[in-house]
Amino acid sequence: MLYCVMMDVNVPADMDPAELAKLREAEKNRAIEMQKSGKFIHLWRVAGRPANISIFDCESNDELHDLLSSLPMFPYFSIKVVPLAKHPSSIK
Amino acid sequence: MLYCVMMDVNVPADMDPAELAKLREAEKNRAIEMQKSGKFIHLWRVAGRPANISIFDCESNDELHDLLSSLPMFPYFSIKVVPLAKHPSSIK
Amino acid sequence: MLYCVMMDVNVPADMDPAELAKLREAEKNRAIEMQKSGKFIHLWRVAGRPANISIFDCESNDELHDLLSSLPMFPYFSIKVVPLAKHPSSIK
Amino acid sequence: MLYCVMMDVNVPADMDPAELAKLREAEKNRAIEMQKSGKFIHLWRVAGRPANISIFDCESNDELHDLLSSLPMFPYFSIKVVPLAKHPSSIK
Amino acid sequence: MLYCVMMDVNVPADMDPAELAKLREAEKNRAIEMQKSGKFIHLWRVAGRPANISIFDCESNDELHDLLSSLPMFPYFSIKVVPLAKHPSSIK
Amino acid sequence: MLYCVMMDVNVPADMDPAELAKLREAEKNRAIEMQKSGKFIHLWRVAGRPANISIFDCESNDELHDLLSSLPMFPYFSIKVVPLAKHPSSIK
Amino acid sequence: MLYCVMMDVNVPADMDPAELAKLREAEKNRAIEMQKSGKFIHLWRVAGRPANISIFDCESNDELHDLLSSLPMFPYFSIKVVPLAKHPSSIK
Amino acid sequence: MLYCVMMDVNVPADMDPAELAKLREAEKNRAIEMQKSGKFIHLWRVAGRPANISIFDCESNDELHDLLSSLPMFPYFSIKVVPLAKHPSSIK
Amino acid sequence: MLYCVMMDVNVPADMDPAELAKLREAEKNRAIEMQKSGKFIHLWRVAGRPANISIFDCESNDELHDLLSSLPMFPYFSIKVVPLAKHPSSIK
Amino acid sequence: MLYCVMMDVNVPADMDPAELAKLREAEKNRAIEMQKSGKFIHLWRVAGRPANISIFDCESNDELHDLLSSLPMFPYFSIKVVPLAKHPSSIK
Questions:
Q1: What's the pLDDT score for residue A40?
Q2: Dist. CA A2–CA J40, nearest whole Å
Q3: Given a cut of 90, is residue E14 above it in pLDDT?
């Protein structure tokens, strides 16, 4: 089941660079892990903003929440979740 | 080059049903045509709303505009376009 | 799987009363039918507004969309869907 | 009398983890206590967000306020309260 | 139990004057009736706007909804309801 | 002359409790003083939120500003002022 | 006593030109009348928009409402009223 | 003096096609005329929307208003005007 | 050329009082200076809010920016600038 | 390919002046560098606000993102990107 997830990243501008780099590294690893699991099927950068638009494929709302809240940078995200359904005009 | 396009469909509730059905048919054909061309790579329904979230792959902003404004229901859409870039954590 | 669905009803103030009454009747019957099916588990009126807050229990986003778009008054609704998950502090 | 209460949790990302854990524990206990009292009848997590949608059953607006403001994390909440009434199409 | 009710009146500018006058008359009578019943305890005009701020004193959310939806101009209102509680600094 | 004043209280969640208690005490005394002066005629708590809806009766906009800005917690308020006039349907 | 009044003019684009011209004429005369009375002390056009920013000098909120609601185009206005007070840094 | 002008075009979807075509033609001619006069120095389409972002170079706010309100489709525009100044980092 | 400038003052509630008083003093002097220069022709307090509505008379957008950004409290302001033009119904 | 980029600068009012000056200097140099490269073709100050409106000419969304995120003050910006296309009425 698909969800469009829009994540704005709100990192304080004066955050300690070393701590931020470590956090980004952990975030990247976790994101790669999820993509390889097949749950996190698209991840695009919003051009010009510290934000991304992603597509998740999960069994349930609960699974989606567990995945998103497991992201190391979850406390720094403003997230909007849009549940998706099959469009009658889609050829997929 | 990818764009996330969010389309809200604002059809007057009292629109003539026959006219609307004809318009939807033309819209569906045009959308299928564009998907087959490879420009319109994802089309998802927003669950619960007359709206969709789509991903377009175009050569330029101009091509994107030409495609979107060629949709028969374009006059009934409120559209938001988000230009996408490659995310450093994406495995694609 | 639970969804909170917030429906604002935007009926034109000058709509033909007879037509509106017929539409409301069909809406009521369909809503009762869905509640009896176990998919539509809570339906509350927002005090003071032509709006309701509902809880749906569906197998998927697609099923939710099919149910909502089958409501006779769907063209008159502005709908917001919030996917729900189990809260760690819930005793249910 | 029913109220839909939407709570967004705004905990500073750099809050001391130990202090936050203690606060969450107190919050959980208080929430469970209220649920057992029958005043707090539904508590759902908003999938993907540090937020919940809840239904309270109180004797009055005053009782609702006393309950909500007694929550240990009340200072970290942005709360929207929607008073609910019986919907004519509800089968309950 | 008190509620602050904010009503914006959205009458189409080109509505038939005679019909509007009749509607306003019915609205005024109903409003006076409710004030005399003790349920509708304050009614103020928002200076400069076709809008009012009112205070209702009702037994329940349901009673509030019944009263508001019984107003002849209810279909032309955008209403916001704020449930009120006793303020610890109020001397009343 | 009446004004509806809506005050949202934005106290930092990590404010020193002792300092906050002192400030609240001063605020309460000042609010009581104003109510006794007849200028501050209604003070209601917004159920579920650190906010209030108040009615002031002042000679002028200037007097209203002087009163509000004299409140000890004024720096922590987001205030919206709505000037009120007599409503033609009010029986007062 | 001063008020800043911001008026957006929402005339339907397909309104009968002759009727609109007559309405504008009546509006202009009424506006000139009020300015000559000393109540309507500034009237500026918002560059690029069918809107104006005005300053009224009235005895009370009620007088302001009576003046504004007497404008022929009042039904076509969205109005925001900001009550003004003397600024401590103003040299007037 | 430069202004950034953002114009959203709100043409009713059911407007008579012939009338709309005539209006668009007049609009195009007027826009070309203004560009040739040197007042209207940039005109870009917002990709995916019936909207444009333009840069005007005018002697005054009044001149800007006269130019914009002279556009045949002015009644169908929602316009936002942003006055521009020289940026200290601009190399022009 | 006239501009309506709306300034909201966002001073952190816990700012050092002495530093703030010094800043306000500098702000007041600069504001008086500008008013005496004829550029800053109206300055009104928004009743009930740390905000003001002002009218500037400048030769250009650039001059306006230089004046506003020279205000000592500029870093604490949220500013909205509305370029004004002569209104056809104004008697000035 | 053109993009309109709107940048609001949110520098904390109490940021260390020396550090800020250094950052601004680096920002200015980088901006000049980009303008000389032909990618950053217009940079205007929004009169009265710490904000700018810019036009970029890039090969792709990715190039735009790389340029913007390379700006030293990127962490302090709120950015809105609007992809632009050729307008049928533009004479360029």
A1: 98
A2: 38
A3: no
Contact H49 B79 (CB under 8 A): yes
**Which chain I residues have a beta carbon less than 8 Å from that of J47?**
61-62, 64-65, 68, 81
Give domain status of residue B22, yes or no: no
Beta bridge partners of I19: none
Give the per-residue pLDDT at A63: 98
Domain that holds residue H69: 2-20+31-83
The predicted pLDDT at position E58 comes to 98
What's the confidence (pLDDT) of residue D45? 98
Q: List chains touching H (3+ CB pairs under 8 A).
A: B, G, I, J
pLDDT tens for residues A1-59?
Answer: 999 999 999 999 889 999 999 999 999 999 999 999 999 999 999 999 999 999 999 99
Domains in chain A, number: 1
Q: Do C44 and D89 touch (CB under 8 A)?
A: no
Eight-state DSSP code of residue D2: E
* Spatial separation of the C-alpha atoms in residues C43 and C21, rounded to whole Å: 20
The candidate with the shortest Cα–Cα distance to G83, out of I77, F60, I10, is: F60
Q: In this structure, is the dihedral angle defined by the CA atoms of residues J18, J24, J27 and J29, taken in order, positive or negative?
A: negative
Contact yes or no for A83 and C84 at CB 8 A:
no
For residue F87, give both structure tokens: 């409503």
Instruction: Tell me whether chains G and B touch (3+ CB pairs under 8 A).
Output: no
Interface residue E52 vs chain F (CB under 8 A) = yes
Q: Please judge whether J81 and A49 are an interchain contact, meaning their C-beta atoms are less than 8 angstroms apart.
A: yes
- J14: chain I residues, CB-CB within 8 Å: 12, 15
Query: In this complex, do A44 and B85 lie within 8 Å of one another by their Cβ atoms?
Result: yes
Q: Does I40 touch chain J (CB under 8 A)?
A: no
Does residue A79 sit within a domain?
yes
Question: Cα–Cα distance between G11 and G14 in angstroms, integer?
Answer: 8
Measured CA to CA, the distance from residue H65 to residue G46 in angstroms comes to: 8
Q: Does E49 touch chain G (CB under 8 A)?
A: yes
Angle at J72 between CA J67 and CA J76, to 5 degrees: 105
Please report residues of B whose CB lies closer than 8 A to that of J81.
Answer: 83
Q: Given a cut of 90, is residue B13 above it in pLDDT?
A: no
Chain A residues close to C65, C-beta within 8 Å = 85
F54-80 tens-digit pLDDT: 999 999 999 999 999 999 999 999 999
Subunit contact C91:D32, Cβ cutoff 8 A: yes
- Measured CA distances, C85 to A34, A69, B64, D9, G57 (Å): 19, 12, 37, 16, 56
Looking at CA atoms only, how far is residue F35 from chain I in angstroms? 17
Task: Decide if B2 contacts A57 (C-beta within 8 A).
Answer: no
Q: pLDDT tens string for chain J (92 positions)? A: 999 999 999 999 889 999 999 999 999 999 999 999 999 999 999 999 999 999 999 999 999 999 999 999 999 999 999 999 999 999 99
Establish if C25 belongs to a structural domain: yes
The alpha-carbon gap from B55 to the nearest alpha carbon of chain C, in Å, equals 19
- The kind and range of the H/E element at G68 are helix G61-69
Distance between CA atoms of B37 and B31, rounded to whole angstroms? 10
Residues in chain H predicted with pLDDT less than 50, given as ranges, are none
Q: For the residues of chain H, what is the DSSP string, one character each?
A: -EEEEEEEE---TTS-HHHHHHHHHHHHHHHHHHHHTTSEEEEEEETTSSEEEEEEE-SSHHHHHHHHHTSTTGGGEEEEEEEEEE-TT---
CATH number at residue H69: 3.30.70.1060
Burial of I39 (0-12, 13-18, 19+ CB in 10 A): middle
Choose from B45, B49, B78 for mutation: most chain C CBs within 10 A. Answer: B49
**E2 beta partners:** E57
